[in-house]
Amino acid sequence: MPERLAEMLLDLWTPLILLWITLPPCIFMAPMNHSQVLMSGSPLELNRLGEEQRILNRSKRGWVWNQMFVLEEFSGPEPILVGRLHTDLDPGSKKIKYILSGDGAGTIFQINDVTGDIHAIKRLDREEKAEYTLTAQAVDWETSKPLEPPSEFIIKVQDINDNAPEFLNGPYHATVPEMSILGTSVTNVTATDADDPVYGNSAKLVYSILEGQPYFSIEPETAIIKTALPNMDREAKEEYLVVIQAKDMGGHSGGLSGTTTLTVTLTDVNDNPPKFAQSLYHFSVPEDVVLGTAIGRVKANDQDIGENAQSSYDIIDGDGTALFEITSDAQAQDGIIRLRKPLDFETKKSYTLKVEAANVHIDPRFSSRGPFKDTATVKIVVEDADEPPVFSSPTYLLEVHENAALNSVIGQVTARDPDITSSPINHSQISRVPVAIKVLDVNDNAPEFASEYEAFLCENGKPGQVIQTVSAMDKDDPKNGHYFLYSLLPEMVNNPNFTIKKNEDNSLSILAKHNGFNRQKQEVYLLPIVISDSGNPPLSSTSTLTIRVCGCSNDGVVQSCNVEAYVLPIGLSMGALIAILACIILLLVIVVLFVTLRRHKNEPLIIKDDEDVRENIIRYDDEGGGEEDTEAFDIATLQNPDGINGFLPRKDIKPDLQFMPRQGLAPVPNGVDVDEFINVRLHEADNDPTAPPYDSIQIYGYEGRGSVAGSLSSLESATSDSDQNFDYLSDWGPRFKRLGELYSVGESDKET
């Protein structure tokens, strides 16, 4: 440790000594050795300068500052002296006091207030804090009055090599293809050093490989790892561990170092051909095996991996190339031999195949190592099996005529036993074969009309006009298709009205020979037509075509075919007459309904004498419960106990006065005031005492026996002893005038 510290101090002070020799004294006031001094010019000296010198020279600052330096990680029995503060104002009489403030003042750095010496009282670490900014000031010892303005200066922590290089991202992993050439780049690594990269060589790193030779090399400054050997084979060794060192101080002795590991994996390339595990394979298969069944597997091994080991299998030669096939299994990397066609032990008992396995993905860089394929021989032995009978044909098609007699021989099927006669196997197999029987047609059906035809002939038609086109059908199915012959009955060959014409599409057209047909003379014509087929022997039938004479428009559109149409008015059809009749009936129904409603409306509203008007019940759609809502309150409270045993009927009083009928009013002219008309009618109704409703007495509620309130009915107040004047009722209007007269008459009768 003392040797290392001496070497560090030598590196530190060498540039400072050079500065002492080469720099002028005014500059040397900057970084010094352990007795760094910061001087200040005296203001008194500035005052002695002449006026001219002050004009020609700029003012000199009170403090001449520069940086102070202190070594990091310095530890000793005494605080280390960093530097000294001094001002020209200090005559040495100890009347000046130095004050220090700022970063670390009092905790890390301590000043002697008399001498101005600054000491570091703690161990410093540049990696934690590289520099400190402090403020110095000289004050009067007794009055503490500042003698000069405060000034800042910096104390820099000087670096020493106390941090080893570190690989922050280690350990590392990298890949490189196998068989790579010399100097192929693998990867690069990076180490960091916390020391100062500017000062000295503390952070200058040099890289080297401690383990991993002779396979890999590293660039000392860039840390790029490369292959040091060519054609490294993955199949021989797939993974390599490389130990890498980073050393500071430019790699010189005494430098610190750090290490990391790099795992290099060789990736596969297709540099190996496939190889069959054996050159000859033997398989056996029963002759009755199902088509597509796997007979056996062959495998060619490949030292490569992944897609570089994929191989395709083919049958390239042999006597069974038509009966067998081989497919590749991508998962198991082997070839599967399957049966393509049936085997027959009695025909051939063994087969020999030559199969080939070839790489799918070939790298042209290694084609010289080829060929990347291999062959093997496969022998397949066919085993005898108890086979079912074999028909002479896989399917049979037999024909029979539809009129064949019962028990007629239709055809014959044959089968044989494929096993050899000397086979000890008991034959218990069953075979099946489809047999199709086709029924052949014979000409046993006569042709006829394809449908029921009814032709219409216009009265104003022209000669030669086509009336109807008909076609025929035959249930038989001749080989060459249908061909029909049409003709008229022999006795109607010279028909004066109609003739026939054969069309190319095997249909028939009926034509009119003349015009002037009249449905009054003859409404319907019947035309028998003979239809014959081309069978052997030919068959025929007679179909009758009904031709109806109709009335048509000028453009030939049929309008009516009935004789009754002549008795109808000109221009009116039967449908139009039915519509007119329906309208008349509807009008009659409307008139009857109108008359009936008028009769009901003209009935008098005055109630006849013999009618017993009891009570008018009018129902209003109230939202309240009303009297029907028996759950809301007890309705028995309102019932009169006197009327419990009997019904109190309504007492209607029919007036004795007879109202003279009013004279009929003159008809109301158009434009009369409706409001005035209504008021006149209302006045008449108010002054007619004979018009309903009549005065009546009805009990609306019971207030209890001995009620001090008495009855609310004004009709029963006439029987009371109270003396009341009812003349005020006349002031209420005509509707209450009659009521006032009744009460007035009642009072006068009482007095009489």
UniProtKB/TrEMBL annotation:
Domain Cadherin span(s) in chain numbering: 87-167, 168-276, 277-391, 413-449, 449-571
Entry's Gene Ontology molecular function annotations: beta-catenin binding; cadherin binding; calcium ion binding
GO CC terms: adherens junction; axon terminus; catenin complex; synaptic cleft
Main location: membrane
Source superkingdom: Eukaryota
UniProt feature coiled coil, ranges: none
Subcellular location: Cell membrane
Keywords for this protein: Calcium, Cell adhesion, Cell membrane, Cleavage on pair of basic residues, Glycoprotein, Membrane, Metal-binding, Repeat, Signal, Transmembrane, Transmembrane helix
Chain's role: Cadherins are calcium-dependent cell adhesion proteins.
This protein's name: Cadherin 8
